[in-house]
Specification:
heterodimer, A: 360 residues, alpha+beta, Gyrase A, domain 2, Alpha-Beta Plaits, Elongation Factor Tu (Ef-tu), domain 3, 3 domains, six-stranded antiparallel β-barrel, 8 helices, 19 strands, 22% helix, globular, B: 128 residues, OB fold (Dihydrolipoamide Acetyltransferase, E2P), six-stranded antiparallel β-sheet
Amino acid sequence: MSLSVTALHSAHANLRGRMIDFNGWSMPVQYEGIMAEHRVVREGCGIFDVSHMGRIRIDGADAPEFLNMLLTNEFASMKPGLARYSLLCREDGGIIDDMVIFRLGSAEYLAIPNAGSYEKVLTWLNKWAVDFQGLSVVPLRDETSMIAVQGPRSEQIMERLTGLDLNGMRRFSHTQVSIFGRNVLVARTGYTGEDGFEVISESGDAMAIWEALMGEGCVPCGLGSRDTLRLEAGLLLYGSDMDESINPLEVGLTKFINFNKDFVGVEALRAQETAGVQRHLYGLCVDKKEGIPRAHQEVYSNGELIGETTSGTFAPSLGIGIALALLSSDFEVGATVEVDIRGKRVSSTISQLPFYVKKD
Amino acid sequence: MDSTALKYSKEHEWISVDDRDVHTVGITNYAQAELGDVVFVALPEVGAEVVQFSQMGEIESVKAVSDLFSPVSGVVVEVNEALADHPELVNQDPLGEGWLLKVRLSDANELDALMTEDEYEEMTEGLH
């Protein structure tokens, strides 16, 4: 099966990006190196091609009601120009995907599901949409592209590109702007733990926007640093830290559930909330430089197996290995556990999430 | 280090070749570039025995972990302590400051099973 490519594929090739297969997409894992790219997002401004992520428009007078019925978070009262993070759950509470949803207008929304979940999310939305007259679910991944502009210098750079004062633009708000006469949607969102923006354009305009960002001194960054940045920021990755066998309460996402409305999965989640969860997602930090935790390594407490890591990496900003782990016991921050790193039990501490908090 | 005075293994380690019986071992420039940023190196202890083409340690980049294989059999007489705090030396200077360990050879004939620089370069070109 040949891999899908984004509208920026030739830019990645020219920049000698190291390409990998990510959920069927040929994407750059790094250009110069993960550590340097990580640092530039923490200290300057990095740009990521995130066009592999899904874009689905939901249109129709019933769109607010439709989304409120399917998503855990509240979308009917959310004002146009704002966006919210939410889970999409099955009837049993299992997570189909996590996504940000923008409200573009009174009867128009844009959902950004994960690359690997795009088709199944479309299928799920279409299945429920048949009950709603005049509702349309429009896949837009091919005709649009998405670039993440992330880091403390991103505001200044986006101001230069758009000619707008972005100082007052709130996190999770978005607006239609013009960049060199091209209409784009700019949102103050991201997946790095830093200030940043995401720019959604028509695919034909993506290369010009990418080159303009490069011209402003932005550094291209790949999926490798995207992963280290999101993990330091304590942000979960669908498919690793959660999937359909896990519910939002178990992975600490309860604040994105509105229990004051009915939605698919609410009964299961209410029952789970009453009963309490049997496992919980924790942050772990290895105590000494004895190895780097990776996904699917066993975690022990007092010699007893209590779960496994779901993600793990070296944290460039902290200089040590970190992980997320789904564990069956209750722990306080500061408790000690052991991660089995290829046969070696490495002492680790339950850590506050996020691991890294951005500088003001 | 003069790279022509080295011999190379299929697993991308180099070993210094001269008439002394203690030889320096490291990973090649090709290997460090493929690995990306090295963040942790697990090496055998001084006094440990290593066996030609068998695992002797691990090297971790941000993304992944790889096994290290000894290019020869012998006893480890020194390890590069600087790598504990500065694993990036492996990327910056793989044939110099980023060396891994020194080993006392048990059988000099094993060196014949390794590649010359030209042979190694030919092999890595075939990998692309």
